[in-house]
Amino acid sequence: MVEFAPLWVPWEHRLQTLVVPQWVGSIHCYVVFIGLLFTRFWIISILYAVWWYLDRAKPWQGSRHIDVLRCWAVWKHMKDYFPISLVKTAELDPSRNYLAGYHPHGIAAVGAFTNLCTDGTGFPSLFPGIRSHLMMLNLWFWAPVFRDYIIIGGMVAADKESVFHILSKEGGGNLLAIIVGVVQEALDARSGGYKLVLLNRKGFIRLALMHGYWEEGSGFNWRLARIVFWWEDSTDEYTSYFGRKSLNPLTVKILCW
C-alpha cells in the first residue's frame, strides 16, 4: 500500500525528496531517446546520435567540467536530503596531480557523486585549485543523455586511458578518484555497516607508481590521501573524511603525489 507524505511536511523537505529521483531517474533517458525515434520528433534523436558519435571519446579524455551546472542549487538540496558532508583533514597541493581511493561504494555511490562531481558539499572551496574527477563504469557512457549528465560533472571512464590522460597533465591541480570495490562492493551494501572489497584490487596502486614523480635526493615523495565514506547510525548522516585522520584498520592505503 502506498503511503503519501503528510500535507504539513515542509516545502524544503519536499524539494529535497524531488531532487534525488531526478538524479536516479536520469539514467532512464535512453527510453526517451528510443521513443522519439517512433514519433514525428525522430530528428531530435538522430541529431543527438550524431553528437554522441562525435563526442564518444570524451569520457577517456578527461570529461567536460561545466562549473555552472556543477553549482546548481539542486545539489545543495540533494546534499541536505541524506544529509552528506565533506570533512577536510589534509591539504592538497594544487601543483600536483592526485589519485585517491573512495570506499565503500554503497548502493549508488551517491556520496562520491555529490562530493566530487558537484559543488554541493563545497569541494572547490575546501580544496582550491583542485579539479575533481570520478571514475565510472564504461557502460554508463553508452546511455544516451545520461552520459552527458555525468560528463559535465567530471566523471570519466574506468579505464587506464582515462588515468593516463588526467594524471599526465602538466601543472597539476587534478584529482582522480576511484571507487576501489566497484560493483561487487555495491552488492554487499547493507544498512548500518559496510563491507570493503580490497583483495585483488591493487591495479590503481600500479598506476600511482607509474605516474609518481622523483624528487632528487629523497626518492619517491608520496603523499597519503584517501576518502572514507560511511553511514553514522547515531545521526543518520553521510560523512566523507578526506586525509590522514581517516586512517583505520579497514582503510586501504592510497598513494598520491
Automatic annotation (TrEMBL):
The keyword Transferase applies. GO terms for biological process: diacylglycerol biosynthetic process; triglyceride biosynthetic process. It comes from the Eukaryota. InterPro entries: DAGAT. Keywords: Acyltransferase, Endoplasmic reticulum, Lipid biosynthesis, Lipid metabolism, Membrane, Transferase, Transmembrane, Transmembrane helix. GO terms for molecular function: 2-acylglycerol O-acyltransferase activity; diacylglycerol O-acyltransferase activity. It holds the Pfam family DAGAT. The keyword rRNA-binding does not apply. It is found in: Endoplasmic reticulum membrane. It is a multi-pass membrane protein. The chain crosses the membrane at residues 30-54. GO terms for cellular component: endoplasmic reticulum membrane. Belongs to the diacylglycerol acyltransferase family. This is Acyltransferase.
